[in-house]
């Protein structure tokens, strides 16, 4: 019999219960016990829902109040010294690591965050020779027991030891040349204890996640993998090694020889690897878990395509050695389609969210097992009809959009003059001082703003009343910026619900959900729009608001747009046409918007691309193919203007060293980057490559409510000037201020402006 499996499930709750509870705890409105109770109810609902849908291998241990990598660090006592000694509870230490803390005499910044092939941020573990691993608590065991107590048998999920170390970084006090993976001998005894406890509690198997295996760097960890699993296997339940987001490639050679009971592979991202994997595991007793139902998109699975892959494995190694699974955790998908009431019946039939995907793996496994159940047969036939209807819709296209993409010329990618020429023109037009100050775009989205938007949606206020409200908000934000003393202003984006959704709602080719929430980090959830057809701009999107903002100030106003690559990567894209075509359609729509902003008198436009690096394929041989359309898409969007318009772009949580020539090739006049939590390590790359355009490395972390001191910002400016010339440097926060409160925002920006004034006096 073929079993079914889900690798992980959204931990946010069907109605965002976890977000509300976590933020309630932060605000002092909920106790720790009340927060724990909400979390337990969400976990119970997840487990029982998956059981009701016929999933055989239900995950536990995948839930988190903030981030599962942070959970692992806390459980294994990987807690940086700066968070200790403040008389905080373990829960408050945990949240301080994730978001910082500035209260009751405690002032600590948040830990660094990074991404791994998605818009989900994980908290980076910090290691040194002094790291003292110990099992503070066994989260996997706790959740296994909780599920068992309500009659649900689960398969615990644990982050693998090699990936845990590989995701981390050395602390500042670690010795030069220290590699976190060198700590494996110290770490393994703790893993042995965790896994042995699970075995004693009755866990038959454990899913142990090692996504690092789909990276090129994993080849350098072969010895560590062999050592780790040779030690863990004898004391553990059956170990199912899970890989996802990519292909194993040559790493399969040593993975297939590890003493593991099962191997999970992602056949959504890398279906071509199936034959190679089957050949490698066939001589062994390794069970093969096939990720045929995508954990990354929201399209209904094509059962016939999935069955074809599953049948190939069954014929090669037998049904008892095959599991049908999601390609990865369903963390990246909304909870359920049942909550969507505004999608048309046709649109509803296209999609599948987390709970629906659970039903899909169960159905596919049942068909492969030879089930004669009428419900299974009915589901199989209904899927055929759904897929046929979707394919019929996909054949429609917008000829004008397709022709415009085909007519793109190399000249459309280039500004009229080199940067040095443009800079002189822009200096005269903008009149900015040395060390100009600005922000990344958004300002706090208050409850009043959200209420007004909700009232408009419910038709409780008119469009004109809403516009009047938004104009008042914009003018208020402008006045605050003027009072603080910022140089290059923004309108604050009060009209925007989300930096991607807002644009999607004003472009043809998108559909939207009511409750399609997906976790980005901590309690920050987003509702990705869905691209369903060719994309075009029916009219101006932001011109009205930026123009109004410019009309109420003498200072220059910066227009704010989200770039084509980011809109694509932070949406659920089409599956029937290439990402390149979708991105270039978006680029042409945004090109028109940038041109219209300049015509309306806007002298600087920021086109944000925080997802540019995130979208880079995991395997280096695949990079050129991606960059060959991602970079031109940005340039198409920004190159249609005169030399006088200053173009900005923003990048966050990105390691640029490996693609720095590509960043240079974007030819933005000014780029801003996350730098406050990365120890300025990015800036050495800019110096190494002789970057000549202007740059604004973030001087403080906006993902934390903590207010940086003026001296902190001065120290960061001094550090930046070791790598950059004074003429290059803009002074700005790390990212947009949408999620922050006004009190901390104003205090932080006042310190930022004062630090910039100090820099002007010091570096004349």
UniProtKB/TrEMBL annotation:
<keyword id="KW-0489">Methyltransferase</keyword>
<keyword id="KW-0028">Amino-acid biosynthesis</keyword>
<keyword id="KW-0808">Transferase</keyword>
<dbReference type="InterPro" id="IPR038071">
    <property type="entry name" value="UROD/MetE-like_sf"/>
</dbReference>
<comment type="function">
    <text>Catalyzes the transfer of a methyl group from 5-methyltetrahydrofolate to homocysteine resulting in methionine formation.</text>
</comment>
<feature type="domain" description="Cobalamin-independent methionine synthase MetE C-terminal/archaeal">
    <location>
        <begin position="435"/>
        <end position="757"/>
    </location>
</feature>
<keyword id="KW-0479">Metal-binding</keyword>
<protein>
    <recommendedName>
        <fullName>5-methyltetrahydropteroyltriglutamate--homocysteine S-methyltransferase</fullName>
        <ecNumber>2.1.1.14</ecNumber>
    </recommendedName>
</protein>
<feature type="domain" description="Cobalamin-independent methionine synthase MetE N-terminal">
    <location>
        <begin position="4"/>
        <end position="312"/>
    </location>
</feature>
<dbReference type="InterPro" id="IPR002629">
    <property type="entry name" value="Met_Synth_C/arc"/>
</dbReference>
<keyword id="KW-0862">Zinc</keyword>
<dbReference type="Pfam" id="PF01717">
    <property type="entry name" value="Meth_synt_2"/>
</dbReference>
<keyword id="KW-0486">Methionine biosynthesis</keyword>
<comment type="pathway">
    <text>Amino-acid biosynthesis; L-methionine biosynthesis via de novo pathway; L-methionine from L-homocysteine (MetE route): step 1/1.</text>
</comment>
<dbReference type="InterPro" id="IPR013215">
    <property type="entry name" value="Cbl-indep_Met_Synth_N"/>
</dbReference>
<comment type="similarity">
    <text>Belongs to the vitamin-B12 independent methionine synthase family.</text>
</comment>
<dbReference type="Pfam" id="PF08267">
    <property type="entry name" value="Meth_synt_1"/>
</dbReference>
<dbReference type="InterPro" id="IPR006276">
    <property type="entry name" value="Cobalamin-indep_Met_synthase"/>
</dbReference>
């Amino acid at each position: 019999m073929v079993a079914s499996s889900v690798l992980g499930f959204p931990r946010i709750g069907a109605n965002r219960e976890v977000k509300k509870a976590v933020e309630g705890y932060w605000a002092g409105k909920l106790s720790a016990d009340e927060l724990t109770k909400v979390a337990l109810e969400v976990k119970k609902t997840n487990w029982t829902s998956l059981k009701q849908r016929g999933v055989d291998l239900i995950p536990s241990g995948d839930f988190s109040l903030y981030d599962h990598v942070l959970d692992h660090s806390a459980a294994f006592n990987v807690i940086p010294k700066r968070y200790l000694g403040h008389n905080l509870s373990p829960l408050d230490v945990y949240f301080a690591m994730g978001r910082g803390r500035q209260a009751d005499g405690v002032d600590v910044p948040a830990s660094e965050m990074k991404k791994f092939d998605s818009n989900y941020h994980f908290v980076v573990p910090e290691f040194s020779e002094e790291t003292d691993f110990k099992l503070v608590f066994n989260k996997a065991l706790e959740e296994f027991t909780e599920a068992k107590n309500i009659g649900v048998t689960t398969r615990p999920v644990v982050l693998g030891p090699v990936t845990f170390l590989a995701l981390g970084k050395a602390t500042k006090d670690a010795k030069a040349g220290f590699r976190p993976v060198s700590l494996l001998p110290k770490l393994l005894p703790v893993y042995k204890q965790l896994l042995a406890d699970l075995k004693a509690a009755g866990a038959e198997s454990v899913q142990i996640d090692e996504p690092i295996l789909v990276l090129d760097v994993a080849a350098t960890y072969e010895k560590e993998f062999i050592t780790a699993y040779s030690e863990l296997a004898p004391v553990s339940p059956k170990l199912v090694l899970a890989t996802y987001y990519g292909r194993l490639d040559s790493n399969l050679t040593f993975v297939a020889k590890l003493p593991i009971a099962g191997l999970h592979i992602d056949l959504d991202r890398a279906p071509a690897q199936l034959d190679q994997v089957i050949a490698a595991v066939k001589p062994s007793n390794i069970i093969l878990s096939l990720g045929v139902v995508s954990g990354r998109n929201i399209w209904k699975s094509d059962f016939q395509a999935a069955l074809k892959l599953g049948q190939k494995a069954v014929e090669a190694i037998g049904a008892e050695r095959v599991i049908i699974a999601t390609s990865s955790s369903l963390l990246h998908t909304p909870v359920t389609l049942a909550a969507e009431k505004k999608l048309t019946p046709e649109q509803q039939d296209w999609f599948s969210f987390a709970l629906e995907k659970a039903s899909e793996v169960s159905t596919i496994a049942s068909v492969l097992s030879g089930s004669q159940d009428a419900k299974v047969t009915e589901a199989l036939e209904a899927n055929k009809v759904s897929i046929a209807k979707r394919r019929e819709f996909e054949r429609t296209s917008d000829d004008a959009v397709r022709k415009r993409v085909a007519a793109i010329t190399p000249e459309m990618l280039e500004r009229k003059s080199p940067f040095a020429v443009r800079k002189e023109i822009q200096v005269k037009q903008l009149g900015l001082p040395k060390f100009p100050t600005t922000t990344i775009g958004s300002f706090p989205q208050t409850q009043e703003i959200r209420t007004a938007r909700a009232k408009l949606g419910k038709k409780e206020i008119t469009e004109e009343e809403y516009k009047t409200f938004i104009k008042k908000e914009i003018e208020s934000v402008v006045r605050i910026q003027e009072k603080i003393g910022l140089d290059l202003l923004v309108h604050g984006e009060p009209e925007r619900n989300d930096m991607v959704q807002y644009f999607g709602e004003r472009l043809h080719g998108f559909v939207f959900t009511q409750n399609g929430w997906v976790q980005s980090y901590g309690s920050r959830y987003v509702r990705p729009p869905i691209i369903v057809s060719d994309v075009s701009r029916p009219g101006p999107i932001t011109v009205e608001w930026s123009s109004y903002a410019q009309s109420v100030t003498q200072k220059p106003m910066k227009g704010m747009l989200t770039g084509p690559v980011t809109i694509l990567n932070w949406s659920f894209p089409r599956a029937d046409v290439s990402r390149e075509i979708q991105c270039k359609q978006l680029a042409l729509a945004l090109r028109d918007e940038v041109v219209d902003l300049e015509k309306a008198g806007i002298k600087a436009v920021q086109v944000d691309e925080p997802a540019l690096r995130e979208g880079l394929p995991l395997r280096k041989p695949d990079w050129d193919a991606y960059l060959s359309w991602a970079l031109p898409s940005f340039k198409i969007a920004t190159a249609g203007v005169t030399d006088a318009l200053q173009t900005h772009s923003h990048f966050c949580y990105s390691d640029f060293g490996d693609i720095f020539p590509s960043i240079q090739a974007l030819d933005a006049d000014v780029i801003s980057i996350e730098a406050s939590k990365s120890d300025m390590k990015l800036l050495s790359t800019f110096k190494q490559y002789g970057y000549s355009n202007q740059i604004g490395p973030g001087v403080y972390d906006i993902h934390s409510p903590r207010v940086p001191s003026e001296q902190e910002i001065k120290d960061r400016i001094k550090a930046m000037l070791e790598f950059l010339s004074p003429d290059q440097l803009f002074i700005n926060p790390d990212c947009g201020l949408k999620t922050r409160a006004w009190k901390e925002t104003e205090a932080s920006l006042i310190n930022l402006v004062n630090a910039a004034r100090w820099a002007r006096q010091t570096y004349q």
